[in-house]
Amino acid sequence: MTSRRRLRVCVQGVVQGVGFRPFVYTTAAALGLSGCVRNDDSGAVIEVEGDAAAVDDFLHRVRDGPPPLAVVESIAAEEIPALGGTGFTIADTSRSGVGRTLASPDVAMCADCAAELRNRADRRYRHPFVNCTNCGPRFTIIGSLPYDRATTTMAAFEMCADCAREYADPADRRFHAQPVCCPQCGPTLSYVAPGRDISHREDALRGARTLLRDGGVLAVKGIGGYHLACDARNEAAVAELRRRKRRGDKPFAVMVPDIAAARRITVVDGPAEAVLGGPQRPIVLLPRLADSEVADCVAPRNPDLGIMVAYTPLHVLLFGLEDDEPGPNLLVMTSGNLGGEPICYDDGDALARLAELADGWLLHDRAILVPCDDSVIRVLDGAELPIRRSRGYAPLPVALPVPLPPTLAVGADLKNTMAVADGRYAWLSQHIGDMDDLATLSAFDSTQAHLRALTGVDPVLLVADAHPMYRSTGWAQRNAHGLPVRTVQHHHAHIAAVMAEHGYDGSQQVIGFAFDGTGYGPDAAVWGGEVLLANYKGYQRLARLKYVPLAGGDVSVLRPYRMALAHLWAAGIAWDGDLAPVAACPPDERTVLAHQLETGLGCAPTSSMGRLFDAVSALAGVRQVVAYEAQAAIELEGLSRGVDCGVTAYAFGVDEDVIDPAPVLTAVIADARAGVREAVIGARFHRAVADLVVGLAGKLADSSRTVALSGGVFQNALLLRLALEGLRDKGFHVITHRIVPPNDGGIALGQLLVGNSG
Length: 758
Ligand SMILES: [Zn+2]
Ligand SMILES: [Zn+2]
Hints:
By secondary structure, the chain is α/β, with parallel strands linked by helices. Helices cover 32% and strands 23% of the residues. The chain is built from 23 helices and 29 strands. The strands form 5 sheets. An 11-stranded mixed beta sheet has the order 7-6-14-8-9-13-10-12-11-15-16, with helices on both faces. The chain has a 7-stranded mixed beta sheet with strand order 26-27-23-22-21-28-29, sandwiched between helices. It starts with a strand and ends with a helix.
């Protein structure tokens, strides 16, 4: 007779709303074990009883083969008295305990649900809300934990008998799938357009598809908010959307029905395909194919296209199934908002705020509880480089290298995210946006409340950027309610974020290159071309780009020709009329600018690498005025990719701890005057910046053999690739971002570590 035992097994991690209990049930049943499983505040609690060998086997399977969306962080098992009995149950009751469970991100429609959507014989044929335990909305519909239907926005929909049966059947794919529904009991679509009656269900879908086919702009409710959609091949439709959104040249993302369609317009390699088709379904930045059918004004002069594959059943229906009338096969899908405002996610708000932007609205009655923008990913070296970490990723926890007390970090100012930490976990919020908008500030409040509700973190400390004028810093001070607020230097936080991602406990220092557009320095200068020797406790500024005067702040950011003139002035190079940025600067403005630079009036010194890219882009003749952040640098990079820069390399001067761009500028001007192509000038400049990084690391190698690269400038794929190659050739260990963005969307993670290391 074999020995019988009973274990209580506590599983922590992302185990709710990801099909974990059904998996436990079927695993136990397959092994002939009895017992039960339930969710509690800290995860899943399993009691399992039977043959000792089978119980061991069960534990292994839970550890090694959990469902695809589950993240098992820890398993603790204790022996308890055997009770006998047969059968395995899933208990509904949640019992409060210590610890916490983790909410799942939203998940793209799975293959099984996609098949049902297309299967005429299935009762969910053409059901725009088909989902199961393996897919569907989560983060954006859960108000609090534990995750049960009652705490989601599906609470309003009573399950029909068929759905209730599936929900209760442990053998069914929808067993305890909280958002489960069907055409009988689920949400319904509506289509609203000025001057016509509101229509529903298939009529609504038809109305929306007709609008898209006819070149109109459709507001469509998605998982984390409204998109504005139009036919991506229709130049006039895209131009009109651009005009209404007051979008300038900022690129739009394109949604495609499948990977095959993505391949027709962009270069999709193996790793990119995996990300494109994965459960997160982010926007993936991919090199665009020449003469693709995509309208030019989708992403003017941009080397890449942001592509995402349809991720909800509603998207798939918008593209149309076999029997539908043909419609657009490529759709612009951009956030439903104006300019830098937060994305619309409430129906009434969408109807009001998008009134001037959309020609029709495709809505439904499943509420979105919190907004969540699409994520944006670049694939580099076969790995993900996040540009915006939001839908599909938030609120997956980031494992921390050292345990932290409950902390709230409020991030920076642009592209902001916040983060909470407790113990070995950090949770980053979804993308919140640029904090200069009043609406964003209110989104900041609600994001914070939701993040705290889902994680149960009750902060004892707040951490903010050292910039006294950042709205996030002001928010932290207003909302501290007596708790300490620590501030962290911007570029130090960038470097700490990469270190944290890579599991550094802070005992070792790294050489950090933090290259970005702007960040507050303790000397009140605008930093941005920084070489720091850093751990979490502190940093030493080993080198920096030479200060040049930033005249008039934002106006010089929007007009790269001004940055070029400032750099020429600082380098003692004459403003000759044949230079592109000199020609681009109106004479009156040139006079005022010269006066400002001479007197320092309205000028702040800056070591910004981002602004140097702007200046070189202008000098090379690529771009003099920008409509969105980093446009000049992006276009310069786009021209330079794959271009052989020949033997003529530019080189920065390095004098002690100051990096002097003057020799590079002189060489750029000489090339431009000699008629060297913009692309070649750009390639030589990228090479020079990469050489600078490798050269400085070599000089500083006694301090550390580990190099960290962070800051928005390292979103530049060409620069990052060149720097990585050079540093690895020299034997450096290089750490770059894989989990959080190198831009300011990753700052909050670094703040958590630095703020707790004082
Ligand atoms: Zn599914
Ligand atoms: Zn139903």
